[in-house]
Amino acid sequence: MTKHSRAKRRRAPVAPNRVQGADPEAYTIDPNAPKSVVSFIAFGADKFMEEIVTDLAPIEAQIGKWPVLWVNVEGLGSAEIIKGLGELFHIHALAMEDIVHLHQRAKFEQYDANFFLVAHMIDRISKDPKCEGLHAEQIATEQVSMYVGDGFVVTFQEGPVDATKPVLDRLRKGRGKLRSHGADYLTYALIDSIIDAYYPVLEIFGERLEIIEDRILDAPTRKLVAQVHESKRELLTLRRALFPLREALSSILRTSPDNFAPETLLHLRDCYDHVVQITDLIETYRELCSDLMDVYLSSISNRLNEVMKTLTVVTTICAPPTLIAGIYGMNFNTAASPFNMPELHWEYGYFFALALMVVTSTLMVFLLLRSDKFGPSKANPPDAV
User: Fold this and answer.
1) Cα–Cα distance between 28 and 284 in angstroms, integer?
2) Nearest in space to 117 (alpha carbons), one of 103, 107, 102, 104
3) Does residue 245 sit in helix, strand or coil?
4) CA-CA distances (angstroms) from residue 370 to 246, 364, 366, 373, 375?
5) pTM to 2 decimal places
6) By C-alpha distance, which of 60, 45, 213, 73 is closest to 142?
7) What fold characterizes domain 302-370?
8) CATH fold of 29-299
9) CATH 1.20.58 occupies which residues in the chain?
10) What is the C-alpha to C-alpha distance for residues 143 and 148, in angstroms, rounded to an integer?
11) Residue 45: how many CB atoms within 10 A of its CB?
12) Which of 118, 163, 210, 383 is paired with 22 by a 20 to 30 Å CA distance?
């Protein structure tokens, strides 16, 4: 991966550029966005209907005929469909602007009897051929916008990441309370499904960081440092996606909209608790990433100390023989004085020099052992635990 591509991936998402002085309610559809796929799910306590449509006429025909009508849009590239749904369900222009202009913070807005909610879905995507090992799967977040009114829910999804599928499966199979409740309970179920999708992702982070920690303690490498930084960056992405949702849920619970039943608000309070719990986990894992960097630096420092210790011991042992060899290599003229290295004419002078080197080296090893350079001294055993 090139430096340019890494910098591009690290760039924080920003909102589309807006023209200074432009109408705050004006919005434009991104032509590069995926084309919209529209489906609707209409249901009641004892009936259910699901259909994928290419125009809005079938949806308009179902309005008011069912206890709950859920319209789901995947992809925001079809301007005619997006604007048509806005007119059909009287979606406020400011809400339409937030729907088509992505990278919004999670938030809750109330427009008369209807309300608008933005959240971020999360999923694991993989299969990047350049990504190996612990990061074979990457984290993807996408915006989902919900416009909720009396008897209807309209959801706009950015792309293929869909955390609402479990809710649709429950509706199809008639499990739980979904079919016997209104649009407010469906909204809660969608929010709860989005939040629950964070748990398996965080579980992967926990396992990944444990593996990285073991590897750092065993054999620290620069590749592990890169993996720690990658994990920390992804955790920051999760925090940006989820943390504002806590404020949005708190706003719903504080205002208690009229179209939310008390039972639904009770369930939303449970969602709020889950968001707080997940946020705490994200912060814990981010702190663990920082701790892993400290562990890496400590491990590298300890390894360097071990290397320096070995080199010091070897140098200490070799210093006396080197000194002796240096002395006998000075080659002073023995004819000039009888005191100039008389061992050079001695029959056993060579063996004497070798024996002197062995004795001094052995003495150094003994002294090092006594000074605990090779481990705890037998004379001073470690304290018992």
Assistant:
1) 40
2) 107
3) helix
4) 63, 10, 6, 8, 9
5) 0.75
6) 73
7) Methane Monooxygenase Hydroxylase; Chain G, domain 1 (1.20.58)
8) Beta Polymerase; domain 2 (3.30.460)
9) 302-370
10) 16
11) 10
12) 118
